[in-house]
Amino acid sequence: TVAAESPYNSVEELIDAAKAGGLSSSGSGLGGPWHMAVAGMMKQVGGDVNTVQFIPSKGGAPALQDLVAGGISMFTGSPIEARSLADAGEVKILAIMSDERSPAFPDVPTLKESGVDWSLTNWFSLCAPAGLPDDVKAKIEAAAQKAHGSAEVQDALAGRGITPLFDGSEAFSSYAAAFSGDAAALLTDLGLAK
């Protein structure tokens, strides 16, 4: 996402400028998901992960205020946070970082559609202590799946621009392990982890 007066109208234009240096981004704290998002995108396109200066913020709202005021070049964060500013013509959402287009933003391409083979999405999980008895785990998982499938939860998630997806404990455990490995490697590249 860039400010409306930004000269960049596509991901390609933004990445070309980012590779040249001098751009900044914000959307979360240092090492947070949106810092990893811009760093991972730059790594994927052959740029240095620190080419875009990341300015830590206390979340999307202050980062978007900084974007509109001209304090940063781009915002990486949940597009739903930028919706009201986009609707008001104050920012341009250039791409979605998920694997598929967002139903909340059907006209906004994904990074992959824009030629960048990179994605990062936020997720929520329900955790329990290790060693939980299988019967208890099964009951909790069934209750979580039932709640997730309810119209009330589906509508609440969709209203916030979240694409509802339920993974069982086995599938999510595999996903979380892979995500943790990728995140650790990226944080190491950023110089934030060893």
Order of helices and strands: EHEHEHEHEHHH
CATH H-level superfamily of the largest domain:
Periplasmic binding protein-like II
Count of individual beta strands: 5
CATH topology of the largest domain: D-Maltodextrin-Binding Protein, domain 2
- What form results from the Cα inertia axes? globular
Q: Which segments are poorly predicted (pLDDT under 50) over 5 or more consecutive residues? A: none
How can the largest sheet be summarized? 3 strands, parallel
Count of helical regions: 7
Instruction: Look at the structure and give the CATH class of the largest domain.
Output: Alpha Beta
Helix-strand makeup class: mainly alpha
**Separation of termini?**
31 Å
What helical percentage do the residues reach? Answer: 40-55%
Q: What is the residue-averaged pLDDT?
A: 94
> Gyration radius, to the nearest Å?
18 Å
